[in-house]
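Render this sequence as a predicted structure.
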Amino acid sequence: MSETPSPSAARTVVVAAALELFAQQGFEATSVEQIARAAGVSRSTFFRQFGGKEDVVFADHEILLADLRTWLERGHENPWVAVCEATERVFRHFASDPKVARRRYEIVRQVPALRDREIVTVFRYERLFDEYLRSALPGIDPLDAVGFAALVTALHNHVLRRLLRGTKRVPLSELQAALDGALRRYGVHPDPAPPAADDVVIAVFPRATPAAEVARRIRSSLD
């Protein structure tokens, strides 16, 4: 007896079939009926899983955003590092199947409406990280929260584009090195550099360290 595919597995089949058709005959020329037929599902099943063709292209992002929100809400010892680890989770997902990721990228590049939606999707990651930092670090300067969220998102997208535009593997370590630099630039790296002449003397904190992070570290030490 054959097993019924799980909802996530069924969605994966539909996404793969849709991307294949989009690549072969173009996004606009592909109908929902063709996608459903290729995936072996009914038209009504397609619309239960997705709102439309655009939603198929961005299905992974919707799942990732929901998963990241849940993961961040669990609470983390160092919120700045948690944001970096969240971006690593996204990179791992797309790097696990670069062929599909590259096919999706090429389709998005060719359709203006999809490019516009991609911009909005990227901003949703940035906003998620911004909101998380403000929640996890009460009193943080909003400029520090939005600035760090934007920097981490931009670094992730830069490294991911190298993977999507090329044919070779791009290791996670490249993203991790970039994120390591972002943490040091903001003075929030868990392994701070040796004290410098211009450090603020509270304990030993670089001038770039946001006030909310100074308070978090002092509170953590007192606890």
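Summary. The longest helix spans residues 112-136. The chain has two domains: 1-57, 58-222.
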